[in-house]
Amino acid sequence: MRFFVYIIYSSILDRYYVGYTRNPQERLVKHNLGATNYTRRGKPWELVYVEEFSSRAEAILRENQIKRMKSRKYIESLIAGKGKALNS
Hints:
Shape: globular
CATH superfamily: GIY-YIG endonuclease
Number of helices: 4
CATH architecture: 3-Layer(aba) Sandwich
Distance between the termini: 27 Å
Strand order of the largest sheet: 2-1-3-4
Radius of gyration: 12 Å
Strand content: 25-35%
CATH topology: GIY-YIG endonuclease
Largest sheet: 4 strands, antiparallel
Order of helices and strands: EEHHEHHE
Structural class: alpha+beta
Helix content: 40-55%
């Protein structure tokens, strides 16, 4: 089973959100429907980055690694260069 770490972006909030899921496109739809309190106020969200992992544990570790960086520059460098950036 595949798992993904994803980054979505809200132009309204000018913020990124990092999460993990089995289906990034489906998860994006849920965020844009207001499924979570945090992302509800930033609609519409755009999927800008995805990394694939073979296990849930690996995806969670990577999600936490990105979140621990607490750096917009780090997130933007990921989007610009590494992994599967979806906006290029």
